[in-house]
Amino acid sequence: MSSEKPINSVSAAIQQSLQHISLGTLCKSIATWGLILLLLYTVLFNHPCCSQTMNRFALFKLKWPPLSPNNATTSANVTTTPTSISHIVFAMVSSVNTWKHRKSYVESWWRPNVTRGYIFLDRDPSQRFHPWPSSSPPFRVNAPVKFRLNRKYATQVRIVRTIMETFMQGDKDVRWYVMADDDTVLFIDNLVEVLAKYNHTEYFYIGMNSESVSSNVNFSFEMAFGGAGYALSYPLAEALSTKVDGCIQRYPNVYSSDFILQTCLADFGVPLTHHRGFHQIDLHGDISGLLSAHHQSPVLSLHHIDVVDPIFPSMNRSASVNHLMEAAKVDHSRLLEQTICYQRKNNWSFSTSWGYSAHIYENIHPRSFLLLPIETFRPWLRIFKPPFYMFNTRSLTNDPCDAPHEFFMESVEKTRGNQVVTTYTRKSPRNLPPCSSSGNHSANHISKIQVFSSATTLKKAGLMECCDVEETADMNITRIKLRACMKDEVIA
């Protein structure tokens, strides 16, 4: 009890003192001491002798890493607006002699008043081309070369200088220049999505080498083949526009416009960025085997349309291209993308190439087998020994268990319920007996395959979809429904 007396007495003294201090006096005291502390902080923390003290306080500061070009991998890092079709300028190289036969290929993908670009001709077109149609890109005539060059390389020099002449057109708000030939079909919606993944403010040279080993050996495995098309970022095209003539003169004996470009860009220290989907099509004959097993990358281009067979049976080349474009207009993300599923009841394997073809096999084949293109085509150059191609293939066969029933796209349409239906009809009778393995059933009676996919959900690049074979009342029609694969789903 005696210990509480001192505490009580101190408390009483403080209360008595506070009663004699007015509120105004208390506020003045607080303001005075605040001013004194502010002056001490200003003097001490800005004096040179106190640098160590400041460094200690700096430990508590939040540090943000600077955004450098090396940290930016996409255009979204450096600009607030995503790359769109308006940011791309296309340049196609043609000639007066070839344009009249090939303009339908360019017009199949060109969108008047939407796409920007030019057709570069070797000379002024004659009166039979006038008036120049609005369905075609505007034309330009390549400027004459003002320096001496090997005449046998004149056409190749004209082609590579088209890069410079395209840049000199002075188009505004350009991020990418895409170069291609007049017998190249481009899939521009897929191109936009691919280029949007790259930083257009840096040097980029994006393309792909040839499907043919011999073509790559003759030129370079690190060269973009211009027929397939390639993309140059704006700063790289700008730098190249002032240096290309000097490069041509520095390497007067380099043949091929594509090889000249790759040689020039090597001097800049710019390598090729390989991107699958650009197709040079250095092949001959029927390329349906390749297109029916397209890898899981968006298709960006098809070249050499005049060299290969029409890609759809019973159609000419121009009609075939326009038919494929009908599917591309409905769903560019799935175009040519391969999907594989099975119908166990009949022991059938299905492989569909969306918007192009569908195959039925009278046997259960693993995906690893069905992913291989059937070698319906021929090598670009037969003087070389195998291997001919940059990819594995499987041979044509008359084995009824391994040879597919082939169907090609007849129509594509959007239906109610946000679905897209592509219909594939039989190319011709297979003319083979049924597969003789136990439990396998003939698919000879199937005349039509319908593939259902989402009209609102685009396919993600690089991911294979799954599918289910659905029962139908009509025994001659098979229905396949595409869907997203479930987590860790195994299709075998």
Automatic annotation (TrEMBL):
Keywords: Membrane, Transmembrane, Transmembrane helix. This is Uncharacterized protein. It comes from Populus trichocarpa (Western balsam poplar). Pfam families: DUF604. InterPro entries: DUF604 (IPR006740). GO terms for molecular function: acetylglucosaminyltransferase activity. It comes from the Eukaryota. The chain crosses the membrane at residues 21-44.
